[in-house]
Specification:
Helices cover 55% and strands 0% of the residues. The chain is elongated. It has six helices and no strands. The chain has two domains: 50 residues; 48 residues, no CATH class.
Length: 129
Amino acid sequence: MGGRTVYNVKVEEDLPLHPSPSPPPSLLSTLFSPFCLADSVKEQLKQLKEGFNVLIPSHLLVSFTAKELEQIISGEHGVDVCVLQKRAKYMAGYTKGSEVIRWLWEVLAAYSEVRQYALLCSAHAHTSG
């Protein structure tokens, strides 16, 4: 941290040189965009790849589709309301029979999978933060 990184930049012959103190936008984007997109996060990407390879060795990655990898990393997006209802633990005086809890299960069961997932993600974010 705080160290200075020096980049050797090869200026191509077809890039115009301007007498102005600031480089032209095309030159700036030509040099700066690759830095922002790749070079600045190279070490973080290396660490991410190493961690990911702990879960799935790199030689096995070719065996999976993108959807299968998403499932391995993120888990299932579907919600089994019955299982969730059976495993729920109630706090603050609420019970399985509390009216508001019964409403919750009714509403959740009526929602589409996408809405169930969104509701549960939202509830988890509010309770874990």
